[in-house]
């Protein structure tokens, strides 16, 4: 009993047209025919088809597959070694292209125009997550603040970034010290640190009013990728991101101008 071409096509995942082509070229000729002349494939034919599909998956052209199958003991190992070498070279080439593409994406999505070596020297553990950069660009690309921040970041030199990161490291140390000491998130020390961060953003990137700063802090608390840009994972503590968010919002309230006092309505008391 043999398997008809349609059934072989279905469970092998190849088209009937492909099987017909293999038959015409002699690569895989079915062992039998039905009384009506239809192709019928035996178990041995299916085993050969499996070999063909294996070599095709590795990228071998059909003529090389035919050569291997004609004398597998003499040719298969050498052919596989050669294919392995070519695939390894192609993988390395593609990896280099991926690195170049990621660097280009990072420049476009973060505004950091430094070489990979300079980025390593300046940022250390702080790593840009391109998935977050892509999400941020999608969410805020129509925001004037986001556009100004990206444009300003693109103008910073290596020395600028070194100073930015030094200021950020000093600020992080004082933030974590306040957190570890149990300072309240809405206390003066935490609010002062929040205000210092807001002014840091204004000085180096874009004017950052308190409402914008609140949205940034909300993002820090909601998305670990965002908070990792501010505090590397090795320096984080559980609850630190929500602590900063509370401090930022408390500082926003502190920075709000007091409501104007209303004069008492004394119309009913006039003589």
UniProtKB/TrEMBL annotation:
Keyword RNA-binding included in the entry's annotation: no
Would the keyword Ubl conjugation be found if you checked this record's keyword annotation? no
Listed A to Z, the keywords are: Activator, Coiled coil, DNA-binding, Transcription, Transcription regulation
Q: Which PROSITE patterns match?
A: HTH_MERR_1, HTH_MERR_2
Domain HTH merR-type residues, every copy? 1-71
What highest taxon heads this organism's lineage?
A: Bacteria
Q: Which SMART domains does the protein's record reference?
A: HTH_MERR (SM00422)
| Protein name in the entry | MerR family transcriptional regulator
Q: Which species is the source of this protein?
A: Streptomyces yunnanensis
